[in-house]
Write a structure and sequence with these properties.
Blueprint: E1 11-14, H1 18-28, E2 34-37, H2 45-49, E3 56-59, E4 67-68, H3 76-81, H4 84-93, E5 98-100, E6 105-108, H5 113-125, E7 129-131, E8 136-142, E9 145-150, E10 153-157, E11 159-162, H6 177-184, E12 189-195, E13 199-201, H7 203-209, E14 216-223, E15 226-234, E16 238-240, H8 242-248, E17 258-260, H9 267-277, H10 283-287, H11 293-302, H12 314-325, E18 327-328, E19 331-334, E20 342-347, E21 365-367, E22 375-376, H13 381-396
Parallel strand pairs: 1-2, 1-11, 2-7, 11-21
Antiparallel strand pairs: 3-6, 4-22, 5-6, 8-9, 9-10, 12-20, 13-16, 13-19, 14-15, 14-17, 15-16, 17-18
Helix pairs in contact: 1-5, 1-13, 9-12
Cofactor: FAD
Keywords: FAD, Flavoprotein
Protein name: Flavoprotein
């Protein structure tokens, strides 16, 4: 069905993910006539798979400091005007039970389907029309608005919101459509790369560690000024786990990546105590009390001297402590968009309004969510950006 002059839309939202639906319901409940176009067969696919099916829908501690962008100030306005507490209130109004897992991360007790249902119910309250399995063939600008040619006809509106997401997880339907559209309208798209993604190893590191797949180790991962304390998980291809996913957004091939294997511990003092109290024990045995046994053994086979503690002098203990406190992990790359949770880079924020998300180049054109050069940490921050940017845009339409 085509939009007609008698029944036009006030806004068309491209993308039925978290940001797009939040924008649509916000505008719809303000009396705007909104159409959401989603090319997949259902909306909210990434919401459904997130958090192991329980959707880590926000983080109570979200601030601008938890986001990466070429302009770290850009996200402040939207985040301040729609906070985690605002979305929590919405969740509670829909009587969705939730819990805090760790570090401010909130998850549904039951299922991520509840968050999608919340968004759809709110969209319905705002009279939002949603078209799924709807492929866009062409987008034109002129004659007082935007005209979107689809397999179901031409839809028109004075405002167009691009909420098409990034390149991460193409199996869920991710594509570069939003970036192509931005370029077509004269916008700069900053280089994109996979973020919150497992790292791959090669060469000796891979040979030495591949058979440890499934072993988890508490670490503090460090790259430049960034540091994250959480678990690292060995995989068949390299390393993953929360600490690695977090640091991956700050790491580029060739960067120095170090892991503190005894986070929060004075390794040298601890080793001296062990030497005094357990002089006959071998280093691998002592380390196995703080690290997984197989990993402790592997460290002593390739990185550390495996001798009884009493045979290790002060200089050797100092060297061992240095390795344990800053173990060099030589990553060769990442697993890429196939498994990445987010896409770094995107539409340049210098060309967008931070209060409305509208293009400074084309009036009536808006960009929200992951397609924009704002990327959150692991732990609900990217959903909070989706809610906040979607709400800011929805209030401006």
């Amino acid at each position: 069905m085509s939009a007609t002059a008698e029944n036009p839309f006030d806004a068309i939202v491209i993308g039925g993910g978290a940001a797009g639906l939040m924008c649509a319901l916000t505008a719809g409940q303000r009396g705007k006539r909104v159409l959401v176009i989603e090319h997949a067969n259902r909306v909210g696919k990434k919401i459904l798979m997130s958090g192991g099916g329980r959707c880590n829908f926000t983080n109570t501690g979200a601030t601008a400091a938890n986001y990466l962008s070429s302009n770290p100030h850009y996200c402040k306005s939207a985040l301040a005007r729609y906070t985690p507490a605002d979305f929590i209130a919405l969740v509670e109004r829909h009587r969705i039970a939730y819990h805090e897992k760790e570090l401010g991360q909130l998850f549904c007790d039951d299922s991520s389907k509840q968050i999608v249902r919340l968004l759809l119910d709110e969209c319905a309250d705002g009279g939002v029309r949603i078209e799924t399995s709807c492929t866009i063939e062409h987008v034109r600008h002129g004659d007082g608005g935007f005209h979107v040619d689809t397999a179901r006809g031409v839809f028109s509106a004075p405002a167009l919101v691009v909420a098409s997401g990034g390149l991460s997880i193409p199996s869920m339907g991710a594509s570069g459509f939003g970036y192509e559209l931005a370029r077509r309208f004269g916008h700069t798209v900053l280089p994109t790369r996979a973020g919150l993604v497992p790292l791959t190893l090669s060469g000796k590191h891979q040979q030495h560690l591949a058979d440890l797949a499934g072993v988890a180790v508490p670490v503090e991962a460090r790259c430049g000024r960034a540091r994250f304390r959480n678990f690292m998980l060995f995989t068949h291809r390299g390393v993953s786990g929360p600490a690695i996913l977090q640091i991956s957004s700050y790491w580029n091939p060739g960067d120095d990546l170090r892991l503190d294997l005894l986070p929060g511990e004075d390794a040298q003092a601890w080793l001296r105590t062990q030497r005094t109290e357990r002089g006959a024990s071998e280093l691998r045995t002592v380390l196995a009390e703080r690290l997984p046994k197989r990993f402790a053994q592997r460290l002593c086979e390739h990185w550390l001297p495996d001798r009884p503690m009493r045979q290790l002098g002060d200089a050797q203990l100092r060297d061992i402590a240095a390795v344990l406190g800053a173990w060099p992990l030589v990553a060769s790359g990442t697993e890429g968009y196939r498994t990445a949770e987010v896409t770094l880079g995107g539409v340049d924020t210098d060309e967008l309004s931070s209060s409305t998300m509208m293009s400074r180049r084309v009036p009536g054109l808006y960009f929200i969510g992951e397609v924009v050069d704002v990327t959150g940490w692991l732990g609900g921050y990217n959903f909070q950006w989706a809610w906040a940017s979607g709400h800011a845009c929805g209030m401006a339409l």
